[in-house]
């Protein structure tokens, strides 16, 4: 479980620029929310050098359906080729009726 959490965090950090673009928020707005200049924000976005606290704040601000869909697509790409089970098999494993 913890390994998956770390992978998700890495995915967010490595794709933060794309997530910001998908979110629809402007750089100057997000920079202001983080207390950064637009130039500094853009540099951090390009270099992927946001601090943990900045990533936390950004994730809270930009979280919307489009961002969630983008993250889900990244997750699906990352898991392509892995073994899967059907919903029926999963329900049986979980003991659901």
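Q: What amino acid sequence fits the structure above?
A:
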């Amino acid at each position: 479980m913890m390994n998956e959490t770390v992978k998700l965090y890495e995915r967010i950090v490595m794709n933060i620029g794309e997530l910001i673009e998908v979110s629809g928020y402007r750089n100057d707005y997000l920079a202001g929310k983080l207390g950064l200049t637009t130039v500094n924000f853009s540099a951090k976005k390009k270099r992927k050098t946001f601090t943990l606290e900045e990533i936390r704040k950004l994730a809270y601000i930009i979280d919307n359906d489009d961002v969630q869909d983008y993250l889900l697509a990244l997750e699906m790409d990352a898991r392509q080729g892995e073994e899967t089970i059907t919903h029926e098999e999963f329900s049986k494993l979980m003991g659901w009726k």
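Q: And what stands out in the fold?
A: The longest helix spans residues 65-78.
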